[in-house]
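Run log, item B.
One chain of 452 residues. Sequence copied directly from the ordering sheet:
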Amino acid sequence: MKKIDFEVHFATQSWVDALYANEDFPQFRHDPASKNRRLFYFPGAGEPYGDVIIDKLLELGEPRLKLMDEAGIDMAVISLTSPGIERFETKRSVELAREANDVLAAACDAHPDRYAGYCALPVRDVDASVKELERSVKDLGLVGWKTHCNYGDIYLDDKRFWPILAKCEELDAPIYLHPTMSKMEELRTYGVALAGPPFGFGVETALVMYRLILSGAFDAFPKLKLVLGHYGEFLPFLMHRIDWAYARPHVVADIGATPQLKRRPSDYLRENMWVSTSGNYLPAAFQCTKDTLGMERILLGTDHPYDSMQECMGFLEGLGLSEAERTMLYESNAAALGVKLEESGCAALLRGAEPLTSRTWFPDHMIVRDIAQSYAEERSIGTGHAEGRAARRHRGPGPPRLGATPPVRRRQPRRRPGPPSPRSGAGTLPPAPGRPRRPPPGSAPSGRGPRG
């Protein structure tokens, strides 16, 4: 049995630089009070963003593979991390998307039995997005599109974005709808605690999925495939109540009171949505999702590097799933989304990795302690100390730069039938990302180092 991880993130050095240079939001800056680096999605909504996180996002080589091996994960489906590139100025967004897709394709070419990828798209230029999606899938061999729950002032259900949805359906390319910091002002009052992963992420992502349903997108594109993390952002819990407006006689009888749909809302969730296990280690949440969507709709997702691969695998292995259920979760469900690990590579036994078992899952009090310690280490953002890995690696001036790697010849897409389309942009790929060094000068307050 192979294990395919559907929610794994990366970044490019240009993306990091763009966040420092961006005068609008999103942007990297140092909090005036704590002097710590944060990623500000909106004023007042900043996520702590230490060197450890940036290191792991930029790393697409052996250190990442080692972490996968230690957790018993055979393949990672990688995507550009939140907030992506959708909110940058249009021309810059087009450039960043193309570079990110090339870098990711180069990593997949270098490790074809370990990595697959979702492309990034500059959604504010719809025509460019359609072309880049086709290039990414047909020429680069990426398997789908990863996007976010808002683009600053608008949602994906707006019909201006429907040509992208149509191209996704035509290419049979799934869409990973990922959270970003909520654009709702009411959710930004208490910073990342309300607007971010604990609450706002799920609220707005679920909202966008439901808006897509009510907009008629799935009637227009019935074969469209959406993936949501965190067990569908609580939508499985609403599976019965979400049909209320289409089931109560007094509402149904009032023609025009609700958008006209060909099916009940819950039918679209069961037939057009898959969910991953990322970042939610509550057994009742897993059971609710399994009961409402079915085991065939749940995918492995670890949310690396924001959550621990080993913690996720330990939780899942402790659920007591049958061998058939484990096979669906880890491997066979991925085939419906165009990801299939070749038998010839990536076998855990050949790598000598031992799979995690239920014995790996620890008592609750140990979990809480270890999660707290891990969170502190992952988000370590002290400034001015020389112990950080980024500071040790770089003593010179200027922003961090990608490490160079030899050119890698692109492979033809292996997962989609039919003859390949003419290749565009063939030749030497941009260098794969190395590790981060110092942020650009002047990004930190005077008298303090630029590290976070």
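Observations after the first pass:
- Residues 57 and 130 are 26 Å apart (CA to CA).
- The two ends are 40 Å apart (CA to CA).
Flagged for discussion on Thursday.
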